[in-house]
Amino acid sequence: MVTFVTTNPGKVHEAREYLDEPVKQRNFDYLEPQADELATVAAHGARAAYQKFQEPVIVDDSGLTINALGGFPGPYSSYVEEHVGIERVWRLVSEEEDQSAAFRGVIAYCDGNPFAATPEPVDDGRRGQDLSAADRASATTDEQVADGAVPVKLFEGVVPGSIVPPRGDGGFGFDPIFEYDGKTFAEMETDEKNAISHRGRALAKFAEWYAESER
Predict the structure, then answer these.
(1) pLDDT, greater one: 91 or 123
(2) Which structural domain, as residue segments, surrounds residue 70?
C-alpha cells in the first residue's frame, strides 16, 4: 500500500488508475519551503510525511513554467495565480515572441530505505501519452541528499504547450491560458486532461518503477 499525502481526493483517484495496489489518502499540513525547484518542494514534503507516518508515502508538487519568463512561476504558480491572476500573466507573455510553456509535475516517494538502480523509462504509449525525448531520457532521478538525510525518489512529468488568451470553462488555475494540441486544459474533459496530464505522466513513471523495485 502507498499513502498519497494530499488534501485533494482527485489526485488519489488519478494515482489509483496507475498503481496495481491500494492507495490511501492522508492529510498532513506540513510547511513547504520557499524554493525555485519543484523537486525541492516535493522532496521536502515526502520526507516530512514519512517522518510523520512512518510508512511509504508519495507527495506531489506541480507548476507552470514559462520559457520567456525564465521558468517562472514554477513552484510559485499557486501564489501567482491567486495574487496576479491568469489574465495578467497572459498579457505579460503576449508581449513576448516566445509564448511556449510547460506544466511540470514531480512525484516524490519516500519509505526510509535506499533505492536500487533506476529501471528503463516507462512505455511512452501508455494511455496515449506522448512524452518528449528529454522526458523519456530522465524517467526517474535520485535526489542528491546530505549525509544522514532520508532518501527520496523523484519522478517528473512534463506537458509542453503554449500560453494563449483564456478559453474554456473547466479546470482550475492556469488551465484556461495553457494550450496543448489545439485545446486549453480548461476546454478538455477531465478524463481527456488526465490522460495527458503532467501528474499522470509522473505517476506512470512512479508506477513502473514501484512495480519493479525491490522494497
Answers:
(1) 91
(2) 2-212
Collapse the DSSP code of 72 into the 3-class scheme (helix H, G, I; strand E, B; otherwise coil) and give the result.
Answer: coil
Q: How many other CB atoms are found less than 10 A from the CB of residue 165? A: 12
The pTM is what?
0.81
- How many helices (H) and strands (E) the chain has is answered by 7, 8
148 vs 194: CA distance, rounded Å? 37
In 3D, which of 177, 139, 140 has the Cα closest to residue 161?
177
d(CA 180, CA 52): 38
Q: What is the pLDDT of residues 171-215, one digit of tens each?
A: 889 999 999 999 999 999 988 998 899 999 999 999 999 988 765
pLDDT in tens, 147-174: 456 889 999 999 999 999 999 998 889 9
25, 3 in Cβ contact below 8 A? yes
Residue type, 205: K
For residue 63, give the CATH number of its domain.
3.90.950.10
Catalytic residue among 20, 29, 61, 181: 61
Active site residue 61: yes
Dihedrals φ, ψ of 13, to 5°? -60, -45
Residues 6+ apart with CB under 8 A from 56: 1, 2, 3, 50, 109, 110, 111, 215
Contact 75, 105 (CB under 8 A): no
> How many structural domains does the chain have?
1
Q: In angstroms, what CA-CA distances link 132 with 136, 137, 138?
A: 6, 9, 10
The residue to which cell 498519497 is assigned: 4
